[in-house]
Amino acid sequence: MSRKFLTPVLLGTLLAAPLAAKEGMFTPDQLQDISAPLRAAGLDMAPEALADLTGFPMGAVVSLGGCSASFVSPKGLVVTNHHCARGSVQYNSTAENNYLDNGFLAAELADELPAAPGSRVYVTTEVSDVTERMRADSD
Fold it and tell me: Average per-residue pLDDT in the chain?
């Protein structure tokens, strides 16, 4: 291997070595157990607030059935990634108004366009521990 290639690779490896992430994935109800590292990383809110999936701020997070989104207004406006809303953008586009190429901006609520037929926004309204019921049914 040439030194020209090997030197940057080794240097990059050595510089990345001190970088470490907290191992594992955590459900929202487990975040209070790791509150100290979260606060050390810069979280400036109570980690317990993230455990309530129907309260602030987690209640603003919704599912579009494969994509996530967030409520950004009390009127139900949600924001998501372009690829998640592409079907609705395409549905509302015409030859005269190609929103895929030119974009769209509603100046007021009355100018908003509908989502494509079949579109859904799933909102968490309750979280229940069903462990015991599932265990009882599996015996």
Answer: 85
What is the pTM for the complete model shown?
Answer: 0.61
Tell me how far apart the alpha carbons of residues 122 and 61 are, in angstroms, rounded to a whole number.
9
What 8-state DSSP symbol labels residue 122?
B
Q: What is the DSSP letter of 67?
A: S
pLDDT of residue 60: 87
What backbone phi and psi angles, to 5 degrees, belong to 68?
-100, 160
Radius of gyration from C-alpha coordinates of the chain: 23
Other Cβ atoms closer than 10 A to 114: 9
- The C-alpha atoms of residue 132 and residue 17 are separated, in whole angstroms, by 43
* Domain residue spans of the chain: 73-120
